[in-house]
Structures are given as structure tokens and as C-alpha cells.
Amino acid sequence: MTQPEEGFVIKDMDIFRKAVVLYENSTVDGKERIRFISKEEGSSEFINTVAMPTTTTTQIVNPHGNMYYDALGVTFDVESPVARPKAHEYLFNEKIIRSLSKSSTTPSLLNDEYLDGDFVHSQILVESFD
Length: 130
Known about the structure:
about 130 residues; mainly beta; four-stranded antiparallel beta sheet; 11 strands; about 50% strand
């Protein structure tokens, strides 16, 4: 069996006025990373998703619908097999990541609903006429 070539492949991308954001997967171990490329400076850097609080090192990065070309940042989710997705935003000018989700990791059970920060998730059954 041959060893796969070390490197990353582009999974997805977002294009903005100030930057290009690449979502990349490793060809060796499947780890994901986000590359931020500044159009103004011509520089390239990685957004450190590993530093985000999760309970495992296995993480999946999912871009949000970043459709606003003049946006000042990019939004994405980071999730793991044992943790719900947490929304984050990377601000282009400040070059910082900020969490858009509350840090609560344990859901509170209240009448078949659970609370996650400011959001309430519940299962609703709808009867079909067919």
C-alpha cells in the first residue's frame, strides 16, 4: 500500500471583496483547516480552529452561507462527533475569531425541549393529509 501524498485539498471556498477563504481537508488524516488569503496584503494565514473549545480533537468545519461580498468577516460552524455545532466568526481586519454561540455544553431538559444559549430546539410533529 502506498502512502498518500501529504497536502491539503480545497473542500469549499468563500470569496469576498477583501479576502478569499478556503476550507481545506488533509489528504493524509482528513483534518480540516481554514486558510484566509487577504486580497489587500497578498498574505495567507490559517484560522486556528483547533484552539476552539471542543471535547475532542476530531472536528468538522462547515461554512455558513457567506453570500455578502462586502462582508467584514466569515462565519462557520465547528462541530465534533460528541458536540453540537458552534458558530464562529473570523473578522478580516482584526484577525480574530469570536464565538457566536453560547458556551453551554450541557442541554437543559424542559418539557421535551432543550436550551442551547439563546436558542430553543424542540421536536414538532405535524400530521400529513396524505
